[in-house]
Amino acid sequence: MLDKKLLGILVCPLCKGNLHYDKDSQELICLGDALAFPIKDDVPVMLSEEAREITLEEREKF
After folding, report:
1. Structure confidence at residue 6 (pLDDT)
2. 25, 21, 24, 1: which is closest to 12 by C-alpha?
3. CATH code of residue 21
4. Which residue segment(s) compose the domain that 26 sits in?
5. What are the residues whose beta carbons fall under 8 Å from the beta carbon of 38, sequence distance 6 or more?
6. Which pTM was predicted?
7. Where would I find the H helices in the chain?
8. pLDDT truncated to tens, each residue of the chain (62 aa)?
9. Domain count within the chain
């Protein structure tokens, strides 16, 4: 589980927009860029080359 303080200050490295924490998939979601950044061993991997594109259905979830 990520620290709530850390979640409060993290932003998307591309657009600097807010991120949404998806506890089930262990990802931080940027709706603006439609990207999901993985969380590995409780550490967010905030590299665009490590992110995956999210689907329209995933975007609507948030």
Report:
1. 86
2. 21
3. 2.20.25.10
4. 4-61
5. 26, 27, 44, 45, 50, 51, 52
6. 0.90
7. 4-9, 56-61
8. 678 898 889 999 999 999 999 999 999 999 999 999 999 998 999 999 999 999 999 898 88
9. 1
Report the alpha-carbon distance of residue 62 to residue 45 in Å, rounded: 20
What are the b/e assignments for 28-53, b being 16+ CB within 10 Å? Answer: bbbbebebbbbbeeeebebeeeebee
Q: What is the pLDDT of residue 4?
A: 84
CA 61 vs. chain centroid, Å, equals 13
Q: Fill in the DSSP letter of residue 16.
A: -
CA distance 22 to 35: 12
